[in-house]
From TrEMBL:
Residues 1-56 are annotated as: Disordered. Keywords: Membrane, Transmembrane, Transmembrane helix. This is Heparan-alpha-glucosaminide N-acetyltransferase catalytic domain-containing protein. It comes from the Eukaryota. Residues 61-205 form the Heparan-alpha-glucosaminide N-acetyltransferase catalytic domain. The chain crosses the membrane at residues 67-87, 99-120, 132-151, 171-190, 210-231, 317-338, 350-367, 379-400, 421-440, 468-486. Pfam families: HGSNAT_cat. InterPro entries: HGSNAT_cat.
């Protein structure tokens, strides 16, 4: 009945069942005619079940996946372009969790869900591995182009990067690394999974033990390195207001520190990539210790610590290893979607896991054992953001796929279906940069600048309100409409 259940869920078509049946037979699992007939009966269940399967229509796309992915892109645009005037929604300067801090783990969570669905069947393992590697390379390429320093969109009408200072890490690079590890585990273990789960709450966990082992190994590597690695003093150079180069020195000489100056996450990146290849505008400059304008950016205090102007990579190597756990939890949600038929069973699994994660995170944070920290991608941060992602995903599932309230979320679905296009052209400002390239007299007199100033800021007599409304209507709503048109035309940009 397991495969019948999958057809009823809309996760696989009748043709897909035939492919799986043929694959099992050709794979040498059944050597005799009687064995083949037993296998066929096992796949289809009773004669009534077989007829029910044949009567089912083609698979129905789970709308929640696209809506959740679209929500993540919308959040990214909102916090990137409105966070400058609303510091409370921008990334937390260090410990804590703001709206912006949910974007990356939401991305990784839904990547994990998609991996589980994409690799629920692997006919040729070698081909699957090639596709995984190719997609990883594509993500790395676009990540370096967009966030490595080559693109200066949308504000500067210039391009190019000094290879001595190119930034090797970024959002897509982190997604690429996490996707590579998690997808390879999923593809390589596809033949080790049971087709039917046994009874009991934890059978879904034991059935996919290798995925959880992979996440646990990532967790152990991160925790041991974070608390055991010795962090020495380090130095950096920075440009003063007059453009002159100055030298900064940070005193450390310790282990297990979770502060901004002497943590192992920053040390690993300085050693692997080099201090000149790290992000040179870290959010910690908005800390109370660094500026009087907290929580906004502003002039440094006279007695500001030496680390305040130092570089730090928020999408670095060690923190990306921790991020593997976020995608592993997403993979679990995808497995639940595959194996459980009823909405109630799915929601019980999803919500219970989410609540446990949130409780663990709250305990770790408020006992100061491991504070929530996006920059370090701490374990409490992984648990909290994955738990919230699970709750949001469950709510979307109830509203969209159970109760059928799909219309209010259509614009999120459309954006989610063309997430890469909206990310590149919208969130990374490539389209805005193109429009800004057509100006009148000076670069400040372009269509985008005119709309921001005259249609929004001047009308509302407020920089903050005008900027927020511009982001909502001229960016998010605009890309929702564009994505809807592209969806109607059947045009999608996929890696």
């Amino acid at each position: 009945m397991a495969d019948v259940r999958r057809v009823e869920e809309g996760l696989i078509t009748k043709e897909g069942l035939e492919d799986e049946k043929n694959e099992k037979i050709s794979g040498g699992e059944h050597d005799s005619k009687d064995g083949n007939e037993k296998s066929e009966m096992k796949d289809y269940g009773t004669e009534e079940d077989r007829k029910e399967v044949e009567a089912k229509p083609k698979s129905k796309r789970i709308a929640t996946l696209d809506a959740f992915r679209g929500l993540t892109i919308v959040l990214m645009i909102l916090v990137d372009d409105a966070g400058g005037v609303y510091a409370r929604i921008d990334h937390s300067p260090w410990n804590g969790c703001t709206l912006a801090d949910f974007v990356m783990p939401f991305f990784l969570f839904i990547v994990g869900v998609a991996i589980a669905l994409a690799f629920k069947r692997v006919q040729k393992q070698q081909d699957a591995i090639k596709k995984i590697v190719l997609r990883t390379l594509k993500l790395l390429f676009w990540g370096i182009i967009l966030q490595g320093g080559y693109s200066h969109a949308p504000d500067e009408l210039a391009y190019g990067v000094d290879m001595k200072q190119i930034r090797w890490c970024g959002i897509l690079q982190r997604i690429a690394l996490v996707y590579l590890i998690v997808a390879l585990i999923e593809a390589l273990t596809v033949k080790m999974r049971p087709t039917v789960l046994g009874s009991g709450y934890f059978t879904i966990f034991t059935a996919y033990r290798w995925q959880w082992i992979g996440g646990f190994v990532a967790f152990i590597i991160y925790m041991i390195t974070t608390f055991a690695l010795y962090v020495p003093d380090w130095a950096y150079t920075y440009s003063d207001n007059d453009g002159s180069k100055k030298f900064g020195m940070v005193k450390c000489g310790m282990r297990g520190d979770l502060g901004p100056a002497c943590n192992a996450v920053g040390y690993v990146d300085r050693q692997v990539w080099g201090v000149h290849h790290l992000y040179n505008q870290p959010v910690w400059i908005r800390l109370k210790a660094c500026t009087l304008s907290y929580p906004e950016s502003g002039p440094l205090r006279d007695n500001a610590p030496s680390f305040c102007l130092g570089p730090f990579e928020p999408e670095g190597l060690l923190s990306s290893i921790s991020a593997i756990v976020s995608a592993t939890i997403g993979v679990h949600y995808g497995h639940v979607l595959i194996h459980f038929k009823g909405h109630v069973e799915r929601l019980k699994q999803w919500v219970s896991v989410a609540l446990v994660l949130i409780v663990v995170a709250i305990i770790l944070h408020f006992t100061d054992a491991i504070p929530l920290n996006k920059q370090l991608y701490s374990f409490s941060y992984v648990c909290f953001t994955a738990g919230v992602a699970g709750i949001v995903f469950s709510c979307f599932y109830i509203l969209i796929d159970v109760w059928g309230f799909r219309t209010p979320f259509l614009f999120l679905e459309w954006i989610g279906m063309n997430a890469m296009l909206v990310f590149v052209l919208g969130a990374q400002g490539i389209l805005a940069a193109f429009v800004n390239g057509w100006y009148y007299g000076t670069p400040a007199k372009s269509l985008v600048h005119w709309i921001v100033q005259h249609v929004f800021i001047n009308v509302w007599k407020s920089q903050k309100v005008g900027t927020l409304l511009y982001v909502i209507f001229a960016e998010i709503t605009f890309w929702g409409v564009v994505s809807g048109i592209l969806h109607k035309m059947g045009i999608y940009w996929k890696l």
